[in-house]
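Structure tokens please, single chain.
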Amino acid sequence: MLIIVVSLNAVGASPACAEEGEHESEPVHHAAHDFHPNFLGIFVGITSESRREKGIALGIEYERRLNKSFGVGLVAEHTFGDLDFWVYAVPFAYHTGRWKFYIAPGIEDGDHGSESLFRIGGEYAYEVGEWEISPQLDLDFVGGEQVWVWGVVFGKGF
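Here you go.
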């Protein structure tokens, strides 16, 4: 994951990206994807068949953007099914355009007890008026298992 972040940062600093500044006299599109220091979203998704038994996942997430590229946040996500699970994580995010990639240490709390969790993931933001709709894919490493989580975040920057 660190290699991806460093590679994306290197691409963002390339001479090709420097050309953007040459066209500053052109009108700039301001919309929901513009930089906002805070983001609040609702997550709706589904988990893989393994540990969380293909349960429905609902969650809330908050991110505080430190600058245009980096942010830190909080995630609380509940998976419903034969077994109930809560995931609490602290994502450290890297933004590049509409893409967001993150790593998130946390815990999984369920019927079996609490265990450490490590999440990696990514999403792509689509603008819908002042809102963002972001398909998201996560991979959780917990209890020696891997859990895939697919879903959509409905959120708004402010």
